[in-house]
Amino acid sequence: MTPPSVVELFFRFCLLSLMAVGGASATLPELHRQIVETHGWISSAEFASLYAITQAAPGPNVLIVSLIGWKLAGLGGALVCTIGMCGPSSLLAFGVGKLWDRFSHSDWRKAIERGLTPITIGLVLGSGCLLVRTTGDSWQVYAFAACGAALSYYSDKNPLWWLAAAALLGGLGAV
Amino acid sequence: MKNPERLVSPTCLQLFTGFFKTGMSGFGGVLPHARRMLVDDRRWLTDRQFTELLSLGQTLPGPNIVNMSVVIGARFQGWQGSLCAVSGLMLAPLAIVLLLASLYDHFAQSAIVNQALIGVAATAAGLIIATSAKLAMKMDRNAWSVAIMLLAFMAVVWLRLPLLGVLLVLAPVGIAFGWHSVRHERDRAEKKT
To answer: Of B30, B75, B152, which has the smallest distance from its Cβ to A60's Cβ?
Structure first.
C-alpha cells in the first residue's frame, strides 16, 4: 500500500463532508469502503479499534476522522482530515443558518427534511451494522452490541456507563 | 418564546467555554448534552429555537453538532462566534483522543487492552443502532419512507456502493416524495376548512 498524501486526504474528506447526510456517524460505511476496502490503508480491525478509542474519549463522533488522519499521516493528517471533514459543511451551515428560520413554514424545507430523514436512518443503521461486522464475527460481539443497543434505547443514562462496563467485561476476557 | 427577557446573549469567550463543557461531557455523541447546556443551563436559546437549529444541523450535510455550533456562534457573534464555538467544542476532545490513540500504540500488543477495545467497539455499534431505531420511531412511517430507508441501508451495507452515487439517486427521490406528502397534507387541510 502507498500511504496517501496529506493533500489527497484533505480533498477526500472535503467531499465526504458534503456527503455526510445524517452526520458523521452516517459516513462509517463510506469511510470503511474508501480507506479499508478500496485502498487498504488500514485494516478492518484497526478501523474498529480507532472507532472504539473515539468512544472511550469525550467529544463529537466526527473524531473518528481525526484518528484515521493521525494513523495515516501523523498529527498533520489528524488536523487536515478534521478540517476537511468540518470545513465545507460548516461554510454551508454558516450560509444557510440565517435563512433557516425564515423558511420554517416553507413547503420546500419540510419536503427536504422529510425526504432526507429516511436516508439518514438507513445510513446510520448501516454504520452500526458495519461496525459490528468489523469488530468481529463471534456470538460475544453480537451479544455486546445487542446489550448496548437495548440499554441505550430503553434508558436515558449516560452511555459512558455502558461503554465502561463493556471495557471492563472485555478486558476480563468476556469477548 | 415564553420568557424572551430571560434569554442571555453569550460573548465569544462564553461561546467557547459553553461548547467546551458540552464537548467534554459527551461520550458516544454530544447532541443530548448540547440541549441541556443551550436551553436549560445557559439560556441562550428557547426550546423551540433549539429544535429549529437541531433540524438544520441534521438536515444539512456534515457533523450535526459542528453545524449547530457554527450557526449558534454566528447568530450571537458573527463568524468569530462560529470559530469560538467550534474550537471550544473540538480542541480538547481532539487532544484527548490523539493522546489515547498514542497510548494505545504502546499497548497494542496487550491482549487485555485489545479485548477491552473489542467490548467498547461492539457496544458502541449497539449505541449507533439504537440511535437509528430512535430516529425511526420518530419518523412518519409510510411505504415510501420505509422503502427509501431500506434502499439506503442495503446500498451501503450489502451492495457496498459509493455513498455519492447512493445520495445522488436517493436524495432527489426522497425529496420528491417528501414534496408530494407535504402538498397532499396541505390539500387535505384546505378541504377541511
So the answer is: B30
- Measured CA to CA in angstroms, residue B187 lies from A16, B142, B176, B180 at distances of 38, 18, 17, 11
pLDDT tens for A144-162 read 999 999 999 998 888 888 9
- B53 and B144 assigned to the same domain: no
| pLDDT confidence of residue A1 | 67
Is residue A17 within 8 angstroms of chain B, CB to CB?
yes
Pair B102, B188 in one domain: no
**Could you please report the per-residue DSSP string of A83-142?**
HHHHHHHHHHHHHHHHHHGGGTT-HHHHHHHHHHHHHHHHHHHHHHHHHHHHH-SSHHHH
In terms of Cα–Cα distance, which of B104, B8, B2, B89 is closest to A49?
B104
CB contact under 8 A, A115 and B171: yes
Mean pLDDT of chain A: 92
Do B167 and B92 lie in one domain? The reply is no
Burial of residue B192 (number of CB atoms within 10 Å: 0-12, 13-18, 19+): exposed
Q: Tell me the per-residue pLDDT of A84-116, one tens digit each, with 9 for 90 and over.
A: 999 999 999 999 988 887 887 788 888 998 999
B113 in any annotated domain: no
Domain boundaries, chain A: 6-137
- The structural domain count of chain B equals 2
Q: Looking at chain A, which residue has its C-alpha nearest residue B111?
A: A171
